[in-house]
Design goal:
The complex is a heterodimer of chains A (193) and B (1175). Chain A is mainly alpha-helical. Chain A has one domain. Chain A contains 8 helices and no strands. Chain A is globular, with a radius of gyration of 18 Å. Among the domains of chain B are: 41 residues; 216 residues, Transferase(Phosphotransferase) domain 1 (Transferase(Phosphotransferase), domain 1, Orthogonal Bundle), CATH 1.10.510; 101 residues, no CATH class. In chain B, a hairpin with a 4-residue loop joins strand 12 and strand 13. In chain B, helix 4 packs antiparallel against helix 7 and helix 15 runs antiparallel to helix 16. The longest helix of chain B has 30 residues. The chains are: A mainly alpha (193), B alpha+beta (1175). Chains A and B meet through helix 2, helix 4, helix 5, helix 6 and helix 8 of A and helix 1, helix 3, strand 15, strand 19 and strand 31 of B.
Amino acid sequence: MSDVTRVLSTIEHGDDQAGDRLLPLVYCELRELARQRLAREKPGQTLQATALVHEAYLRLLGPEGQSIDWTNRAHFFSAAAEAMRRILIENARRKRADKYGGQLQRQNFEAFDIAAPALSDDILALDDALAKLEVEDPVKAQLVKLRYFAGMTETEAADILGISLTTAQRHWRYARVRMLKWLKNADEVDEIS
Amino acid sequence: MKQPEPDLEELFFAALEIENPAARAAFLQRHAVNERAQREIEELLALDSLANGFLESPPLSVPQIDLSVDQQAGTKIGPYKLIEPIGDGGMGIVWMAEQSEPVRRKVALKVIKPGMDTKQVLARFEAERQALAMMDHPNIARVFDGGTTAQGRPFFVMELVRGIPITDYCDRERLVVEDRLNLFMLVCRAVQHAHQKGIIHRDLKPTNILVTVIDGEPVPKVIDFGVAKAIGDSLTDRTLCTGFHQFVGTPMYMSPEQAALSGVDIDTRSDIYSLGVLLYELLTGTTPFDSWTLKQATFDEMRRMIREDEPLRPSLRLSSLGDTRTTVADARRSEPRRLGSKLKGELDWIVMKALEKDRKRRYESSGDLAADVGRYLSGSPVAAVPASRTYRFRKFARRHQVFLSTVSVVGLTLASATSLSTWLALRAIRAERNSEASRILAEHRLQFSERHLYASRLRDARKAIDDRQVELAQEILKDASTSAEGNDLRDFAWHYLQGQATRDIVVYPDIVSYQGHFGSVRSPILLEGDQRIAYDNGAGEIAIVDMATGQLSDVLKGNYRRVEALAVSPDGRTLVSAGKSTESDQTSEVLIRSMPSGAIVGRFDISAIGFKRLRISNSGRILYLGTYTRDGMIFDFLYDIGSDPAHSKLLGKYPYGEFTFPTGDDQAFRHRLGAKVEKVDLITGKVRKFALPRSEEIAWCEVSPDGAIFAQIDGGRSDIVLNDTATGAEIDRIHACEAILSGTSFLWTSDHAATVVMQTASKRIFIWDRTSRTTAMIVPEGTDREESSVVCALSADGRYLALTTWGIPGGQTPVRVFDVRTGEVVATFSGRHDTIHEMKFAPDGQSIYLIGGHAIKQWKLFPAPSIELAGHQDEAWCLAFTPDSRYLLSGSDNSDEPKTLKLWSVAGGELVTSGRPHLATLSTMAISPDGQRLVTGGLIEKRNLRLFDISFLTDAKRWKDGRSLPGRSSLVRTVAFSPDGKTLAKSGDDRKIHLFDGFTMAARAVLSGHTDKVRQIAFSPDGKTLASAANDGSVRLWDLASRSQIAAIEGPRPFTTLAFSPDGTTLAVGDQTGLIRFLDPVTLSEKARVFSEDSELRSVAYSPDGRILAAAGMGKTIRLWDTLTHQNLLDQKGHEAQINALAFSPDGATLASCDHAGKVKLWTTRQSHRDRGQD
């Protein structure tokens, strides 16, 4: 039984703290995975978050993964989405710090390089908006994380969140406009400072 | 936790169902709980249509380029066996390889690095293959083959060139400039060959131009033709974004259109640009934008620089290189100064033409570029110059210096000066006896052609000023100021034009120097009360420019690698800078300086790697720093730097926010996105809530200087709200009709009226005036372009708003200044300029500092016209300056105004006093060389000559003290003092010249001979002779010792005016036909003549340095003539009546003129206080 399966099963058995133990595991795995993949992959290929997450899933859960129930899958993918989010945010922060801190040390970064220079800022702003959404409506935020950071489809995400596809679609639509609004405003704030 | 807002969401979806906008609005009005909710839903609905695609694709990650080499020596790629790697270009690794079939030969094989679509690369290569095969040029390395390795990577097979990059070769061999140019021409011709075959290189740079030595001769070879094209397109968008290293082509050599990433739009002219960069580097050792500068820039900045920033001319660049200059010059077997003057001029022009941003203005082909370099080498005029006769003349004169006789040089250029040339030749022949003939002749020729060029440059400058191309004019004048030999050529005309050219805009010297890279102007701040600007010069130093003098007044060095932020206290006495210290990556150093001395009074380290904002409280006591830390966090710090600067005390550390300081020093406001405004106790550093009634998130805030009013942009972003800081009550609200992007400027007056300039999301500018409660809207030009950006500035009195938009085709819109009250445009600056990123009004609001790129310019908004004195009511006839140049006297007719004599202050232009020396027209006057005595002559028969003591010039009563000539005589028309002041001469209607004692007016002698009225007399500078011009048509020369006439000439028409040159070598006389003759002062033989105009001349005057003769008369135009070449330097219009007299001030700074309508004007090179404006 893999570590993750073990953690998942403790969650199943009501150990609330276990969730906290899941994230670092997924995070580390994803990170490592991404690093390896990037080193091996033909450069120029873009790395799909979905593929990464699924690969992490297979690796972390091993053969047991096939038989795991949807609650645990939901736990895992939520953790994975969160992990991906953190990885990307970290990366963006570093790039941003670098941007302001001057010096061209970008080439030293180990694995990730966000596609466009502007995106590192975007992603931070996006994350801010996501944080607000989380306060306002956690389910919608979770939906965004799953879809955006973990690359889930509508159906997969709806499945994991245990909501209907229609609801997921509706949530998705509303979450996007809410976030867009904040983002728009956030841009403007940047202009001021 | 805030509850979700189901009503909003429900309404949103319900409203989505309603397609009709009116129905939708009505629906919302009916159902929304309040207006705010309605607005919010409307915003969401609007966003919904934009949201398509948003968050749809997960964030992509593009991996770093894999630098690993998967080929090894011995690997076989097709018929090629890799032998050893010989280079690592940007795009791939180059191997020396051996081809086994069909021929056995060594080739260069370039394996393209991973990252591109192999199929496309090869398809493109195939498409070009035929063209590539047609290229057959000794200076182009042939491309044989292309294919795919087993790993799927494209490779290219090329002729093996065993050479080193052209720049390295030139430096290694220490080639002189000429040799470098010869090599460069070969490269151009090779590129031309390829262009003729329809092949563009796209990546010309030194590493693609290798030099091999064949039979002792260097042979450049251009490699990689067709390769960049094959690889290029697939990369442009995607890879360009991954960072500096994967740029297609090195950014240093990239043309503006390539940097624009428009992709499709590359043609042969891009190669010409790259060749220009290469030439730049061959000459100066650096590229126009060096890698250091480009690396410092962000990706977009870098692209912007390439597209917009004008690089320094090579000669200027060289002088900016600092210590490196010597090395650069040494590699060219020269010294910095010599190399600089070699580059200056033609080579600068050639390079700059190749580097034109607008490719239409570049050379049309690289063949043309080569030809122009060839012309430079052969000494022919180059084409790279806007057609200027002067320049061609200079080249011409220089080339023919040895071969042409003086006569033909002059004859070709100036028909009217033939007699002068004869004179020169005569002098030369005379000099031949002492074997210096050729030297003197050559000197004269050189001087002559120099002056010709100079005269022509002045005319160019004049034209540029008339066209309001003042910066161009300044550049031309700068160029014209010294000769190639380093002689200072500046004369009155130059200084006058310089005054005109700098009247509205002053270009401060290019901010250059420092370790071989560009200086730059970053985070400029105005040091209050002091017309100085401090800025980060990009080299870890704070430079301070004095705007009054235009000089770099100070460079404050710290041990910074880079200055990150600057702030000055409101009283201007404390300057704080923050930057990365040279010692550590992790910390930054904050330096506190006392101004204006710049002495460091305190310092501390802070663990930050970047700065968002520095601000000093009004009292100067508290420093606020918004910082970025290494892990990307943002922290705000408050330090007490005022109590004891040497030991700054940390008051508090806060998560991300923004501080605003009211006047009082005990509290600050702090706001954070999405949080309530807080008050911070500046004694303890403690934070309290500051509850505003509408306490939703705010986007921006500011406190009025007295701390009474708190202004904010509310979360909805359409309102600016003013609150009372004490009670929190809302006291005013400004609605902006559309989303506010930023509160650009907020201007408070003591009674809390405010002028607010707001920039909205759609880049419109709203000016809101709280007193009049009016809102004005300005739509800046060029904002329909999405990438455009508006720069604006508000004057300190709130009266003027300056606006410009950049990021548009053509760079930037003209800077316009609006009167905020009327919305009228009061000034427009449309001269050439670099991108202006920042504007600041000077404290007096009369000028604007335009800051951008590498220069600061001061634009004077309201230049004064030439100084016009109050003048006379009647015809003004005569002028005289006091020897100290401080006062000007003018004399006039007495028909309408009895006071015929007026004394003016030259500096201020005001009337000091006036007098009435004669009961008639004051026709002539002269001041003794010692400045003690004034002699006046009147058109009257009695008391027509008076001598005044003017040692107390400003005392009006003194006018009466004049000693007067007893008895009766005829009307006096001209008077003069001898150079020693001991003799006084007068003449007029009586045809005789009377000589008097200069102090007692005792009669000394009478010179007779003229047969009609004498118009003007003049003593020669040595005092030995006196010249006179009369209506009898003659000019006579009198010897004062023998009191006899020694020479005379007669003209067909009467002579009207005359003047000796200050050195006494020439007597200039003007006549009724407008002809000026330059006469030998001994024989009166004619040396040269110019037709100044086609009407009567009334006055001629030499400038004190003798370089200029000013002439004017019935033609109403003042014409300035160069006294060596007799070229027209300057025509100055402005009088509306015939000009009766001209006079230069003895200091040479001012030319005075007076006319028949009584107007008296000063044409000055000085900037008088009147220039400061009309306000």
